[in-house]
């Protein structure tokens, strides 16, 4: 049994007097224990909404979530709110994008780490703080005794993200969802945080869902990659497969647009035409069709199905790219 | 981070024989994680060992010199900024003096405020009230009592009314605002329409109505009326920031950790929303003093003529005998203005100090 099995997850935002907007459209993917799965795509493709829906963190009103999110066989979407709350933080941890705003500004770091331990492991404050010190040490925060009493604004961005990781991993969850954990950080700190995540995931055997728009992050970390466009999975492949032979024109375009050290001087960067706004609803055809270089007539006759490929992945395209690109 | 201990190369110049000296980044913070399986403590031991004893000693020395006692909370930080603001100092001095005078009134006042003195009543007529004399620097009030002593004792009454009215208003307002902000939905709608009704009436008019509704006026009706008037302001303020907090990232993060809803409200949303309310409390204090004085001035205050109260002194004695002895109006008016100004200045300075936009 997979650790997490997301089946046909759809999220529709519905506001009174407005057309419903499908943010996530029948997304399915699985996460095996200890595996690192990437969700990749540009802004607005439904990455974050997917993660929030899995955690049950979307607002109660104004949206409709359908499908199944099976965590070790239990459908999280059907759990009572209290039961779901018990699982959040204990079985599934989450790391957010902006480490400063994700920490409570008026509570010392130590107490924030301790809070989750008190909540899920029933520790008293003293014991939880001792454990928190160990956790801060484990994520490489120097001088953890002092950091325990410090407030979020007093420590650096990298340390804040380390503290958030410590909080997320405090109860040794079996699944960790990282929603763009490095976007708000400097490039050097990004590398450190990713190394730390990789190390912790390897050590603890935690499965990781890595949500990112950064292909570099994917290349370094993920076992399997799901590429999302317009709320649907358009391509799924093992990491090496994806980077060596991207089949979907969107993936291909993304990989081609990464600046490369060995490109000819003065050469213009490759770009994907248009913007995310230039899409068509999936019911009418492939959402990527207006921006696609490989577009064929069939692309406007309805959504192409997600079909398994020879190399073990899945692909949603009528006219896939066949050429190989060198791994950037 | 400007902490010298975490800046590279402060200790001594780099030498070639310390290859573990991190080429980029800094020695203690955010070191890239090394091989898996090692604990960070082990890693730190090893790298420090190669730094060399001189460097380690220097680092320890720097660490001692720059050690800070730990966390600086939002409030302590604001206090530090408050101390550097001259406006705050002026406000704090006025408030401090006022509070001291109120507390030690019986010791400071030269006479009993309710005693009528023969030497004053002797010269007392309708169109002549004795002015300053040797024993009575401010002269007499219309009943032959020592005016200075009454002024000093009046501060107690003002402080009492101000503190109680603000506290009651704060408590009720925070309660209503927190409930509205935490529950949202129809609870929020009902409570906020109630506050709308109260805010729609001019505050003094509402206070007068409340006092007039009481069968027998006492100082408690005044306190209560002034408190009620300030409730909607606190409730509105808190509810607004609670709603903002509800959408904030750290509340989402707390939800993602499975923190109970009650704890999210009490430990994450409320403490972050209180800053604005605390500042408003200081400003409300000034308004409460003015409102209470206004009620007394209008004859709706405490009917006890023996109790010294600035608003009453201004309204009854000052107004009636203005042409005979205008000082009877000047002194209480001045006292009310200065004290209200003191609290306003302090409140404004606090607002500035506590505003996160001003943080470094």
Automatic annotation (TrEMBL), chain A:
Gene Ontology molecular function terms on file: ATP binding; ATP hydrolysis activity
GO cellular component terms, semicolon-separated: plasma membrane
Subcellular location(s) per record: Cell membrane
Major location (coarse): membrane
Biological-process GO terms, alphabetical: peptide transport
Keyword Membrane annotated: yes
InterPro entries linked: AAA+_ATPase, ABC_Ni/Peptide_Import, ABC_transporter-like_ATP-bd, ABC_transporter-like_CS, Oligopep_ABC_C, P-loop_NTPase
Gene3D superfamilies in the cross-refs: P-loop containing nucleotide triphosphate hydrolases
Membrane topology: Peripheral membrane protein
Record key words, sorted: ATP-binding, Cell membrane, Membrane, Nucleotide-binding, Transport
Record-annotated ABC transporter domain positions: 6-255
ATP-binding among keywords: yes
Protein name per the record: Dipeptide/oligopeptide/nickel ABC transporter ATP-binding protein
TrEMBL record, chain B:
One GO CC term on file: plasma membrane
Pfam families from the UniProt entry: BPD_transp_1, OppC_N
Domain ABC transmembrane type-1 stretches: 155-347
Region (Disordered): 1-55
Biased composition (Basic and acidic residues): 41-55
Chief location bin: membrane
Lineage: Bacteria, Bacillati, Actinomycetota, Actinomycetes, Micromonosporales
Protein name according to UniProt: ABC transporter permease
